[in-house]
Amino acid sequence: MTTRPVSRTLLASATAAVLTIGLTGAAATAEAPLAPADGAPGIGDPYWPLDGNGGIDVSSYRIRNSYAFDSRRLAGRTRVELTATSDLRSFSLDFLLDVSQVSVDGEAAGFTKTDGDHELRITPAQPLAAGTDHVVVVRYADHPASHSYAGETNWLANGREVVAMNEPHMAPWWFPSNDHPQDKAIVDVRIRVPKGREVVSNGELKGRRVGKRSTTWHWRADEPMVPYLAFFAAGDFTIEKGVHRGLPWLVAVSQGLGRADEEASMRLMRRTPMVVAGLEKDLGTYPFSVVGGLTTSLDVGFALENQTRPTYPAVGSSYTSLVVHELAHQWFGDDVAVQQWRDIWLNEGFATFMEWRWAETHGGRTAAQTLKDYYSNVSASSDFWDVVVADPGADKVFDDSVYGRGAMTLQALRNRVGNEVFWRILRSWLREQRGGNGSTEELEALAARVSGQDLSSFFTAWLHTPGKPAATADNGLG
């Protein structure tokens, strides 16, 4: 910075002004600027305090990995584009693998692994100023199966197949991230595997580069996503694709399944575009540019709502309700993500309710009858009623009551406010929160505003209080 000499006249005037202020007792002292600080190792979620990180906002991940099936070793680099949201001396990314090199804006940066190796603490050559954009490149190589976090060992692989799918955590096993639903980002994935093997990920297949011994598959999702919703699967897959009502779809089924299971799984996967069209009748336009699904041969034991392409175990051809559940999550959980993990019922309760709704519109029981059966058949002494749905705790975040009682809450609300107002509430929620995050408190306020009713006692009974709600009209049960 260049400075200029101060004239004697200006100096005298300034001195007089200071003396005058001092005489009146009103002198003000300028606050010294705060020094750059270390970004917090967590974003502030009480369930998993190390999830996410303070001081940064990620806009994109460009992941370039290679995977060896025989050794189950993953190696690569990820380019993270982020904005500093405060003045930072250092910051963290959530990552479990062994790191060899980190750079920030092309300059080598210091780094350490802390807090059980979940936190990659990065110290750039120069502090980052609030509001400035930066490029972080992390290089790594490791065996993901050797790592765990929060009691989870999430890497799923055998000698022929791998699938990176899990919730609430998955990203730290294969790319460094700001791993919390509050920070969505564009995800661009390139995975190199031995020639002849397939890779499937989120979004659209942008291309393949085939070499003598390997093939690199390039996938990109056009809409920002929560880190745990990013996935890839590699192995031997049968892939089918098409366009339904203008929406491109692509589905894949592992060839590691027996022939009968593979054919049954493909029949189920082919229902994906039809299910989306059905859900659009209630929820409005599908929120993303492509859709699909993948069935793995690995013994995962659950399905997951990976954005644009849910992943499934082999469950046969008749389990349409599972596809309905995971595709409903594209609206509830993917497009509108939770604000904190305690809000998980906004994902699981809504997706379960849409299963009930699908049954009611496809020749099955009405959702009202399903609610009635649930309520009648689950005794007041059951543990089902012990969980506080709006804040179940980290150990109960995927408890059956979060799904079942969450869905019951929605049908009871439908009974309470009427069918037309209920669907206006759901569509207003999706429209107003689109592409962002939502909390239980925000939903409650919206429901009251749209319905014009005081619903505080209703939500207290269903979401905030352990115990079986009373069978009253106020609770949507009269």
UniProtKB/TrEMBL annotation:
Residues 60-229 form the Aminopeptidase N-like N-terminal domain. InterPro entries: Aminopeptidase_N-like_N, Aminopeptidase_N-like_N_sf, Peptidase_M1, Peptidase_M1_aminopeptidases, Peptidase_M1_dom, Peptidase_M4/M1_CTD_sf. The keyword Metal-binding applies. Transmembrane segments: none annotated. Its EC number is 3.4.11.2. Residues 1-26 form the signal peptide. Its cofactor is Zn(2+). It comes from the Bacteria. Keywords: Hydrolase, Metal-binding, Metalloprotease, Protease, Signal, Zinc. Residues 317-462 form the Peptidase M1 membrane alanine aminopeptidase domain. It catalyses: Release of an N-terminal amino acid, Xaa-|-Yaa- from a peptide, amide or arylamide. Xaa is preferably Ala, but may be most amino acids including Pro (slow action). When a terminal hydrophobic residue is followed by a prolyl residue, the two may be released as an intact Xaa-Pro dipeptide. Belongs to the peptidase M1 family. PANTHER family: AMINOPEPTIDASE N, PROTEASE M1 ZINC METALLOPROTEASE. This is Aminopeptidase N.
